[in-house]
Specification:
about 325 residues, alpha+beta, Alpha-Beta Plaits, 3 domains, 6-stranded antiparallel beta sheet
Length: about 325
């Protein structure tokens, strides 16, 4: 056998080996692929969303189905200008298909006396509240925006959004113009029992010019450095008034995993949620803050706040 023939034979054997190896790999890959169940995303039917939400739905080119509600029922002026609803007074919800149903995200226009009903209804229908803030200064009446999120069956999610918007409409049907203050009396400055409040909260209480205040620090990191309560990472509550009728306002710091639990607990205790937002950018873990306001007997307010602290502890253990 000459050298050329020998070289050819070696190359032929190598080529055959490579083909065999590729064939085996292809077969293995095919078996592996066949073992993985199909996870195809099914497009959403806009008619399903229309029927479930009671609002005409539109299908976008990206497969997202959207519904909208323009708040034409309450005139709003901003900086002296009567604001047309298309300039930022529209509620909307967008539904995106997922492998297990759909995800909804949305922004809901709320006036101050509508928020409790809107938030409670969102919670009752399995939706999350992810932000509450203003978009304007010098608006009359003051207008806010509640952001929502949810995952699940598309029709069920749409029914939830419909219920939230319906709860808002019900508030306006009872009183066309937004209220100017929360229901209940206005507390008068008087005696607040610091010992009783401290015992109920399980925390030390400071008396600052007749205001009882409790602060609880949490931690995070930023730029590789530990940050804590002295840099603003605190939950706090302040009591003003008397033992019989007080106002309790404050700020609750939360990690993402416990936001919903804290909101649920505060609402169950009768506190009004007045803001939900972030204070920082780039911290790890990310922290969020909800501001609240409540009125009632001071001890009841303390116990309600304590229930939110306890709900947070439970949520923190569920990773």
């Amino acid at each position: 056998m000459n050298r050329t023939t020998s070289s050819y034979g070696i190359h032929a054997h190598l080529f055959s080996y490579v083909l065999l190896l590729l064939g085996l790999l292809g077969t293995a890959t095919a078996h592996a692929d066949s073992a993985i169940p199909s996870r195809d995303v099914v497009n959403l039917d806009p008619q399903v969303i229309t029927r479930a939400s009671g609002t005409n739905a539109t299908l976008g080119g990206d497969g997202v189905v959207t519904i909208a509600w323009s708040r034409t029922d309450v005139p709003v002026t901003v900086d002296g200008l009567k604001l047309p609803p298309p300039a930022g007074l529209g509620s909307w919800a967008a539904f995106m298909p997922t492998v297990d149903g759909a995800m909804v995200m949305g922004d809901t226009v709320v006036f101050q006396d509508e928020l409790d009903a809107a938030m409670d209804t969102a919670f009752a229908h399995g939706l999350q509240v992810t932000a509450l803030h203003n978009h304007f200064f010098y608006s009359d009446p003051p207008v806010f925006f509640m952001h929502i999120n949810g995952h699940g069956d598309p029709a069920t999610l749409a029914e939830g959004v419909r219920a939230v918007w319906g709860a808002i409409r019900s508030v306006r049907a009872l009183q066309p113009s937004p209220a100017q203050q929360f229901a209940g009396g206005v507390p008068v400055l008087g005696h607040l029992d610091a010992v009783t409040i401290s015992r109920a909260l399980g925390q030390p209480v400071k008396d600052i010019q007749g205001v009882l205040k409790v602060s609880i620090g949490r931690t995070s990191t930023m730029d590789g450095m530990a940050i804590g309560g002295t840099l603003g990472l605190t939950t706090w509550i302040a009591f003003v008034g008397s033992d019989g009728l007080a106002v309790a306002d404050g700020d609750f710091i939360m990690y993402g995993r416990d936001v919903q639990a804290v909101l649920h607990a505060l609402r169950s205790a009768g506190f009004h949620i007045v803001a939900l937002h972030n204070h920082m950018i780039g911290e790890k873990p990310a922290v969020y803050f909800t501001h609240f306001w409540g009125k009632g007997p001071a001890l009841d307010l303390a116990r309600g706040f304590k229930s939110a602290l306890e709900a947070q502890v439970v949520a923190d253990t569920k990773d």
